[in-house]
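User: I'm putting together notes for a lab meeting next week and I want to include a structural view of one of the chains we've been expressing. I don't have a solved structure, so I'd like a prediction I can at least talk through. The sequence is below, exactly as it appears in our construct file.
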Amino acid sequence: MSATVEKLSSNQVKLTVTVSAQDFEQAMNTAYGKLKGRLTVPGFRKGKAPRKIIENYYGAGVLVEEAFNTVLPDSYDKAVEETGIQPVAQPEIDLETIGAGEDCVYTATVYVRPEVTLGQYKGIAVPAAKWEVKPEQVQAEIDRAAERVSRMVEVTDRAAQNGDTTNINYAGTVDGVAFAGGTAENQNLVLGSGMFIPGFEEQVVGMSIGEERDVNVTFPEEYQAKELAGKAAVFHVKLNSISYKELPEINDDFAKDVSEFDTLDEYKADIEKRIGEQEKNAAEQERTDKIIEKVCENATVDIPQPMVDRAIDQRVNEMNMRMSYQGLKMEDFLKYTGQTMEQLRLSYADAARKQVLAEVVLDAIRSAEGIDATAEEVDAEIAKYAESAEKSVDDIKATLSAGDMDYFTEMVKTQKTIDLVVAAAVDAPEEEPAKDAE
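Assistant: Thanks for the context. Below is the predicted structure for the 438-residue chain, given as structure tokens.
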């Protein structure tokens, strides 16, 4: 086998692969062995006709296609290795010459990892990362903790009001006829939550326990059940019970109940510290993203569409997996959101292209800087993963394949490249807001 490569563009090449007549003859014999049991020749039992007889009876080309399918995978893989190209998609194959007793020559046109011409990637000017912890963020965390330790208190001495949790029976009709899904018993409803049809909850406000009332509403025009959309309905409602959520008093005792701290001040200080760390990490990540974005803008590269398609595939598959964990199906999601798979993929296209662009540009910087990963650095990355998985490093390593090790190695190399670019960046002055024209 021999191969030559012709560059068609910065991201596409054409391989011309020659399989020797001798090797192709061996493939013809292999094809004969595969097909002889399926071919019938008069005067011979099935599978017993010599190759020459089969070719004379069916024509010389009867074995050629099968022989080519035999030599193609191995010869293509060897041609890729020999020429050093990095395909990113399946090749488009065209036959040049083929036949028994002669060299088999074919071309493989394929998209490859694109060439990158780097621009400036050191000294990128981006404003310094800034963050702050706002009092309302701390209060929101305290409010969530209070919600977790709240308790429901039953009401017996007043009518229902906004914010109450009511338990109701209801039966709905349209033009005097009951409809599917319009009847329920012992249904909990938080008044003011907006969970029911507009106007329903407002009419339950003021009802007393045991009271029955007709509630008149109109289904929204865009209601999901088309047969009810825009229709006037009457719900006969009975109020079974009323309760409300009682929140704890926010004091030192509350802090002791929800945290490891003895005082509310200590608890608040810890919340502020934790939120500050989160805000700092987010601000630094945002700055890193801006630096990489500018580095990519400074580079010249033509991203092949198959790389973008593959990144979109990954995002769709991840989304599908997340939904499956929640018991949802992709087709149902598309139906509920009123979009097609093509529209969903299109919504991912821009982010996927940016992702691929960053990958190839960072890879080019890594090569230019000679960045590599040491065994110690890879072990440290595996240790971080083991900690997050709550397993020992030895247990994780025992399950890792060669491909997994390559993944961790690539992670280390990529992170070192990002660290180099970020460390070399400089703080740009903050942009002043535009002044109003006089």
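A couple of points you could mention at the meeting. The chain is about 45% helix and 20% strand. The two ends are 77 Å apart (CA to CA).

User: Perfect, that's what I needed.
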